[in-house]
Design goal:
Layout (H helix, E strand, L loop, with lengths): L1 H60 L15 E5 L2 E9 L4 E2 L12 H14 L4 H10 L12 H4 L27 H4 L12 E2 L6 E2 L5 H6 L4 H13 L4 H7 L1 H5 L5 E2 L4 E10 L2 E12 L2 E9 L1
Parallel strand pairs: 3-4, 5-6
Antiparallel strand pairs: 1-2, 2-7, 7-8, 8-9
Family: Belongs to the GSP K family.
Protein name: Type II secretion system protein K
Keywords: Cell inner membrane, Cell membrane, Membrane, Protein transport, Transmembrane, Transmembrane helix, Transport
């Protein structure tokens, strides 16, 4: 009986040793994998940063007085290094509508920008009530508009929060505003999301040389005029004279809103180092004195 008990104890002890050995082996393997991935993550980050820097150089080399689809920075760039590869794309942000242009510097409401945003909602088929909720989020008072919402509404959430009562710090903040659902903000297979047409980085003017058809319609150009603009852009960069010949009345009302070059860009770099990815974004402003970095993000 005693021998049998000893045998059981011995087997149990050996089983524990075997389990501990297995756990230790797995721990060493996992630690090696983590170290391996961390090493490649570090390299991927470095390669992505190199891609960002390359994008800055490309932008600085463009000396045209206009920005158009034929410019050197428009086409994506692929760079290959011994450590990995990186895809670099550059998007002009002033081809979008600056949502913060609705507020003037003194925090009063800019009527022209309000009308443009109302046009954009209409063009995209979104509820006009979104204008009220946006204005209530931006303005400094606590009195809701007819279809708007102020502190009383946002205070019912768990946790409660308050409207910004000022300009947005990022377009993603729209998700906190009543009515701005993910279905409205995010793009799908067959639709453009509102967020893809908005920015907070620009001089409040829109580069019509690169603006999308939806933005051109937002500006007030008819479907026929938009088609003519797109046809002209296939041949050459636009100018004020070209737009005047297409639609003098609409263009005349937009002289303070449109331009033909870009100053604000988003450089996106996606690096791949042995299957480990790193995506980085840099918002820049191109000035006469060079490239000014505004915001850097990493995914």
């Amino acid at each position: 009986m005693k021998n049998g008990f000893v045998l059981i104890i011995t087997v149990a002890f050996l089983a524990i040793l075997a389990a501990n050995a297995f756990i230790f082996t797995e721990f060493v393997r996992l630690r090696s994998e983590v170290q391996y991935n961390q090493n490649f993550r570090f390299l991927a980050d470095r390669v992505a940063r190199t891609g960002i820097s390359a994008g800055e150089i490309v932008l600085s080399l463009d000396k045209n007085s206009y920005d158009w689809f034929d410019d050197v920075w428009v086409k994506p760039k692929s760079l290959v290094f011994p450590e990995g590869s990186v895809e670099v794309t550059i998007e002009p942000l002033d081809a979008r509508f600056n949502i913060n242009s609705i507020l003037n510097n003194d925090k009063s409401i800019n009527t022209q920008s309000v009308n443009l945003f109302s046009n954009l909602l209409s063009v995209m088929g979104f509820p006009s009530s979104l204008l009220d909720t946006l204005l209530d989020w931006l303005d400094s008072d606590d009195f809701p508009r007819i279809f708007g919402a102020e502190s009383e509404y946002y205070g019912t959430f768990n946790p409660p929060y308050k409207p910004a009562n000022g300009p947005l710090g990022d377009v993603t903040e729209l998700v906190f505003i009543k009515g701005f659902t993910p279905e409205i903000l995010m793009s799908g297979e067959d639709r453009t999301g509102l967020s893809d047409l908005l920015t907070i980085f620009s001089d409040n003017k829109i580069n019509v040389n690169i603006a999308s058809p939806l933005i051109l319609q937002m500006l007030g150009y008819s479907t026929d005029s938009v088609e003519k603009i797109l046809n002209e852009r296939e041949l050459r960069p636009l100018s004020m004279n070209i737009l005047m010949n297409i639609d003098r009345q609409t263009t005349s009302s937009l002289t303070r809103v449109i331009k033909f070059s870009s100053s604000f860009f988003c450089i996106r770099a996606v690096a791949d180092c042995n299957g480990v990815m790193s995506t980085q974004f840099l918002i820049v402003q191109r000035t006469s004195s060079g490239i000014k970095r505004l915001k850097w993000e990493r995914n």
